[in-house]
Structure prediction request, 646 residues.
Amino acid sequence: MCGIFGIVTNGSAISPVLVSQITNILKHRGPDDEGYLAVNSKTGAVYNLTGDDSVITGRHINSFNEPVNMFLGHRRLAILDLSPAAHQPMSYQNRYYLIYNGEIYNYLELRDELRAEGYNFTSNSDSEVLLASYNRWKDDCVDKFNGMWAFVIYDSVENRLFCSRDRFGVKPFYYATGKFGVAFASEIKALLAFPDIKRTVNEAALYDYLATGNEGQFLTEIDELPPSHTLTIDLHRDLKVKIKKYYTLNINPALNASDGVTADGAALRVRELILNSVSLRLRSDVTCGSCLSGGIDSTSIVCAIDSFIKKEHMSQVGISQKTFTASYKDAAIDESRWAQIVSSQTNTQWYQTYPTAHELLNDLDDLIYTQDIPFRSTSIYAQYRVMKLAHQHGVKVLLDGQGADELFAGYPMFYGAFFSNLLTEGNLKRFISELAHMGNAPLSTTSVLTYMLKSSLMKSIPDSLKNIFIGGLNNHLSEQFKNSHKGRLSALLNEKYSGSLNTMLMQYMLKENLQCLLKYEDRNSMRFSIESRVPFADDTPLIEYAFSLPGAFKIHNGWSKYVFRRAVSGLVPEAIQWRKDKVAFNTPERLWIKEIYLYLMQSIKSETAGYFKPAVSEQLMNSPGGWRAINLSLWLKALKKPSVFR
Prediction:
């Protein structure tokens, strides 16, 4: 896991000192090493500089034999092959040069396949396997990878940049284009440090965020390479960016079991795929640990690792694994009792952190700097504290359960789509049967029927009524702000409340919820130099199989995540396997806001003028989504200070 930065200009020389300064903004992502590649893209001259900071900062533009108009910078977090052999930018055959952030978990299998074809390797890193794969399969190499990645390869013979982002968006890749050329980086803050990139706010994205919580492109000058896409630049001709999609996730929209597939068979296959995914994500030369909330997702990972430990010694985990939990004194949201059950059964070294409102206030500036863009809830601070705790206890790789809810229908809102589909397909018998089993569900029958009505209404009522119907911050948005973005709310909600259960799951996985959660996790983990691994969110075989299953396997007899629950039978404690009261990764947000509101009120009033009705009141702060108003105001304030995002 690392931080990458690169820039190529239309011909103007680049200051090595500036490149070093920008790359080192990402030092938290890779404190172990650094390296730089300087290139004259017209002549093909390449200077692969060492990781010694003084080597590049001591260079003047004129000290190169010819003008340099491209730089690649890398900050390394050493996870696989801790030796200098895995240093980046990595050179291969004196032709290809790589900067890379992520992990190719199936690198051992790929290395064996490439060795059988005559390839040799001088390191034990996945980076070298990635480069050899590119040499063998060129752009199609990404089809071979199972993992998470954002990388840039410079081919000095073809004079071409090939960039790629993983299929499901675990690792970030931001880029900006302009008269200067093209720049790209792991985090927005690195691009904002480049003087030619402006800080123009995208007002439409702000509206989406305030109205629905959607997070999009908040700055007009900076784009995000979508998951499952590659970006190429032919340096022979011009700096035109070409973007191509290389992967599409397919789904089976049926609600009934497909031919030859039974719930028992599906559960066995899901179990096999989960264990394999977790096993692959334990490949590491440093200490691994796990997040533990007490829910079935994180518990299944912790218990899977425990089963591996009992079979064989695992140096990357130790005699017993380390687990980390965010806890609270409020029993309504605290899940420590469940995490303790898991810790006792698996004999983990269990560590807890207890975030408070005043600690949030003290850490707010750093949290906003860490996240780069506004975020939806204070649960992000709880995760920030968990990562900090893991760092304090020497863990460098942390496994987490993100993604299981989107694969197996873990959120209450998925029930509405499921029941609507049953009616649409005329399956009244199953509809009635499922309603009769709602005692097993995390929501009431009334809630499901309300959701179905809401979904139907959202497709027909005007925006003015939609604003009232969905409530929250919408009741406090100024009429001028809403009118300037007419039509956006309908488009957002129509997409949100349409389609089959699997279609909705895919929406939450690839466009909405999970994409936000993965961004939060990447920023929070890397803030403390931790590589976060998510077995449910980027394992292609597991994800493809989950989306081939009918919705009836995911919600069954009222149970959410039915096939998943069946899959982990005997692996996780039964009390957790059949839990119905999971409260998500919550914090006492309303109480926290009340405690810190007075400290932030002036900033809220000054920075969000025009977005809300004239009187910003405590009523707004008590609204669902009140945190979004706070966070947006603080982000806008920070954005105005070059000394903050740089």
Summary: The chain has a mean pLDDT of 90.
